Amino acid sequence: MTTRAQLETLLAEKIRPSLQAHGGNVEIISYTDGILRIRLTGRCSGCPSATLTTEEFINQIVQTAFPDVREVRLAAGVSEALLAEAKAFLRRSP
């Protein structure tokens, strides 16, 4: 199993349930050179505590399980799924 697949398993088992309880989720954007880039989605994407969630919650769990991960970075910007949803909504508007 690749490191990325192992990270996905960790997210599914240890991180996503907590985020989903708040209406959010997390997706991996990339994992290169010891840096895991993630995006929070759903309600978590615009939450004022998103940076704190990443630094205190996600980073701690990931680095405990994967010492080779030097840093977990929160990616800014809007996910493709959210953009598609917004475009679909705008097309329905009169």
Notes on the protein architecture:
This protein has 94 residues and is α+β, with helices and mostly antiparallel strands. It has a single domain, classed as Fe-S cluster assembly (FSCA) (GMP Synthetase, Chain A, domain 3), CATH 3.30.300.130. It is 50% helix and 22% strand. The protein has three helices and three strands. It has helices at residues 3-20, 50-65, 80-92, and strands spanning 24-32, 35-42, 71-74. The protein has a three-stranded mixed sheet, with helices on one face. α2 links the parallel β2 and β3. α1 (3-20) packs across α2 (50-65). The longest helix has 18 residues, at 3-20. It is elongated and about 55 Å long. It starts with a helix and ends with a helix. The model has no long low-confidence stretch (mean pLDDT 88). Pfam families: NifU (PF01106). This is NifU-like protein. It comes from Megasphaera lornae. Residues 8-72 form the NIF system FeS cluster assembly NifU C-terminal domain. May be involved in the formation or repair of [Fe-S] clusters present in iron-sulfur proteins.
